[in-house]
# Entry
Amino acid sequence: MNKPAKYDVLGIGNAIVDVIAPVEDDFLANNAITRASMTLIDEERADSLYDVFPPASETSGGSAANTIAGCASLGARTAYFGKIANDELGEAFAHDLRAAGATFVTRPLCDGPKTARCLIAVTPDAQRSMSTYLGASSLFGPSDLDPACIQDAAIIYMEGYLFDRDDAKAAFIQAAEIAAAAGRQTALTLSDLFCVERHRQAFLHLVRGHIDILFANEDEILALYETTDLDSALAQVRADCGFAAITRGAKGSILLSAGQVETIAAEPVDKIIDTTGAGDLYAAGVLYGLSRALSLAECGRIGSIAAAEIISHYGARAQTSLKLLAGD
Amino acid sequence: MNKPAKYDVLGIGNAIVDVIAPVEDDFLANNAITRASMTLIDEERADSLYDVFPPASETSGGSAANTIAGCASLGARTAYFGKIANDELGEAFAHDLRAAGATFVTRPLCDGPKTARCLIAVTPDAQRSMSTYLGASSLFGPSDLDPACIQDAAIIYMEGYLFDRDDAKAAFIQAAEIAAAAGRQTALTLSDLFCVERHRQAFLHLVRGHIDILFANEDEILALYETTDLDSALAQVRADCGFAAITRGAKGSILLSAGQVETIAAEPVDKIIDTTGAGDLYAAGVLYGLSRALSLAECGRIGSIAAAEIISHYGARAQTSLKLLAGD
# Structure
């Protein structure tokens, strides 16, 4: 039997500050931004895109970090690994995670690239199109893992975006191995349709051999199994993973575990402002529920509530206590 | 006759980035924050307060800068003077003003304090309590004035907060003199009840001798004239200034000019989230209206619309085109 975990969830991901601005639809085409997805950009492009960006706000982001902040807001004990620089945005990133209640100890980078930033253009339909300069976050590697912390976490949660870099991928695999050896659970989110297409074989290998809990949206799970039939994809993920949660936007979500399927409606929202972080916060709710050994239906319900809070304003961090919202 | 102005409004103020977080009511008392006002703090207090601050967002702020960004969003030609440092928050401040359409050329400070930041704690009643570390902005002085730019602006708009520092006050008076000599109009906002009480005599002297257009809320105008009777205060401000606009929160506003009084209802808002910037954006609407020689009623209406947009979300910069909202 495992010793009791010190953390309910440990997240590993790209430590990114979001620079968010509302834009008109033609802004995307005029600036060659791929709609509704995440595109990696270099520093030069980040600077030139920022020059034409409308007035913006800076809010801590990063997919797994958003999830960890959400878990913490729900009341879970959390920790996070990710690389910031020794600059003002890095300071804000660390502050916001710690203020949410997460343990964050990754050593900041000195004398290298700046803290990562993601320029998020939000169109009037609330869809977000992301251009990410990875900066310091791209220098996260195996040496940034703290094995004791991994062994102390009930669930290790990692974002698929890490697969875009070999060093981060190596860290990812190593963390999964340490977790498995300690009898801990591993969780993965597929992150992005194009990310799945870039790394399909590696993801399939990982999901089949190393992942206990999988998060994906409908497009991503269909792309992973190269099918257009959701039932077929669900049957396959069920064979591959002990637990999966598939989000379907306004159509809600489907949770699967051995012998169980649960369909959850989306939580109603007065006005959807910005969908940034919807999947991240849904995952937060489900992970929180798993950490409390709640039913599939309860996990899905809390995920939907957390996602509804996030899409009702700009930014991917909660503006109200998720614990109070979830009534848990 | 004056030559045509290149700018409709030139703002001068403290260049500040807002760090905004929702808090519970007891957070103010627990951290010795004065409710609903602006308190100046030093760097040490800024650091220790940030340490206990909840997860936050960074948005460009500064009272006069908010007004200028609002004027620009309405379609006015604008410029701004204020001192940032050569750091990431300073870069964001400059970006956001320029992206709004304002001309901003004040030389950033090198090797000095950081860009100013205002820690804004927003309680559930949407009231904001502000703790401001002036940093680089406090080094704005007469040498940062560009006389040609002042001579080229139809209205010079200044915030009362500048009176908290002698150098800024000297710059303020000098700018007003340059403007008057060039036949331009000068505008002032009283900024804050406590600011009025700190500088009552200086404000009275200024209003009587140098100011054409005065903005204040009800508390501030009562404090300026040391009365509890609004009618008496209105009669006095009318004798002192050519034009005054007095805001009254949910009760709307009163605009006064020679021979005219106009009472304007507040624009309805579904849910008030954060009142930061309400007065700044009201002033933006009125200044825009003045720049287009609109009626008192139209000036007040546009001010109310701009204020309503700002209080419906966190932060004091518009998240939608004010020009479209105002239908102008």
About this structure: Chain A touches chain B through 30 residues (CB under 8 Å).
